[in-house]
Design a protein that fits this description.
The protein has 408 residues and is α+β, with helices and mostly antiparallel strands. It has nine helices and 20 strands. Helix 4 packs parallel to helix 6 and helix 7 crosses helix 8.
Length: 408
């Protein structure tokens, strides 16, 4: 019908003006929406959509049946019309239309609120504070000085090198494992971090501290380690013989089994835990560090002092003797153990050239009564010095005959 065709061609539209700063516009139009089951003309639907200004997309929200007064369909009036209906029907229609408009307004308000919420969430940027920028990232950005004002967030590197990320993760994992008393696993993660971090990186020292703590716990017999095994005491065994048999010391056997050093009694068949270490030492004059290795793996790292008179060449040496509470003799003078002038401290380890012809100058690794000199180059006589507590521990771990290497 012509009237009906005109009704279908009509477009109901409305627009709402909002402040320019809002990121959307409201549009309501229904030129030819999908025909419903009852084949109601398109002109009787209000199609509401929101256009996101930033995304330039239309998002259909709702379709509302809204009869327009005065339009007929198949010869019959639809909506509020003066024809074809009583006053009762007209009032009912007017009331229904009123509630539909109220519903539409509430819906539009809800849609606007949702759009504002979505916009604020998607356009919010959190900028980290200076304290939240890690020292590692700041260093990689080329800013070593912690007191220097930080660069804008846009100048920070997007990512860190892959190896650096692996080391940071290994260190964090190792600390968690140590807190869980899984000392062997924590030690392995610390080793991994020590190998990757540069020596100048503060995280290298943190990794060393974790490695030392975990290794000490293992030597104390806390937790399990794949390098340990159980040995049943045989007839004639002593702590010294057992230590010599397995490349360790009597003190190390007693320590890992939590047996007092004052005790020497053993029973046949008694089970002892033995740490089967393949010990060797590396001494770095430049870094002022002594590295205790178990095979090819770092086990512990000790700080050292290096005397100016130390002139032994780089290369391989052999640990030939170990002495407790040594007497220091220098220029016809003698200094007893405990004397502040005794530079040897509580212990010393004597190292000689490992080559057959003994070309390189022998030297000592010894304690010191002046711990403040550790980590420095020391004026005057001496060799490689360690804190007394460190040389005491090292003395109890390694046996005679192991390899010692002096490196740069």
């Amino acid at each position: 019908m012509p009237g009906n065709r005109r009704a279908q061609q009509q477009i109901l539209s409305c627009s709402c003006r909002f402040p320019r700063h809002l990121p959307f516009r409201i549009r309501a139009a229904a030129p030819y929406p999908v025909v419903k089951k009852r084949q109601i003309p398109a002109s009787h639907y209000c199609h509401i959509s929101i256009q996101d200004v930033y995304l330039s997309t239309n998002i259909t929200v709702w379709e509302i049946f809204m009869p327009k007064p005065g339009i007929t369909y198949k010869g019959k009036p639809i909506g509020a019309s003066g024809k074809g209906g009583s006053k009762k029907k007209s009032s009912e229609s007017t009331g229904s239309s009123k509630w539909l408009w109220i519903f539409a307004v509430v819906l539009v308000i809800a849609v606007i609120a949702f759009a504002v919420y979505r916009f604020t969430r998607s356009h919010t940027v959190l900028i980290p504070t200076t304290q939240e920028v890690s020292e590692t990232v700041r260093r990689l950005a080329g800013r070593q000085d912690a007191e220097e004002s930080p660069a804008p967030a846009s100048n920070l590197p997007v990512s860190i090198p892959e190896d650096q990320g692996i080391a940071i993760k290994a260190l964090a994992t190792g600390e968690k494992l140590f807190a869980m008393k899984r000392y062997s696993a924590a030690r392995d993660q610390a080793r991994r971090a020590v190998r990757i971090f540069e020596y100048a990186d503060p995280n290298w020292q943190k990794s060393v501290e974790l490695l030392n703590k975990a290794s000490t716990r293992i030597l104390n017999g806390d937790g399990n380690s794949p390098e340990t095994f159980v040995y049943a005491v045989q007839r004639g065994d002593t702590f010294t013989r057992i230590g010599a048999k397995f490349g360790t010391t009597a003190e190390a056997v007693q320590r890992i089994n939590k047996i007092s050093i004052a005790r020497s009694d053993l029973k046949i068949g008694q089970e002892l835990t033995i740490y089967n270490g393949k010990w060797n030492l590396k001494i770095s004059n430049a870094r002022k560090k002594l590295f205790l290795y178990d095979g090819s793996n770092i086990f512990k790292v000790y700080p050292i002092g290096v005397a100016m008179e130390f002139n032994s060449a780089q290369g391989l040496y052999k640990l030939t003797s170990k002495v407790k509470y040594p007497v220091w003799k220098y220029k016809e003078s003698s200094y007893n153990p405990g004397d502040p002038l005794n530079i040897l401290g509580s212990r010393y380890l004597s190292c000689e050239d490992a080559a057959e012809y003994k070309v390189k100058q022998p030297f000592l690794i010894h304690g010191t009564n002046r711990a403040e000199n550790i980590g420095k180059t020391i004026a005057g006589p001496g060799f490689i010095s360690m804190k007394n507590e460190d040389i005491n521990e090292l003395f109890s771990i390694i046996p005679n005959g192991i390899e010692v290497e002096v490196i740069r």
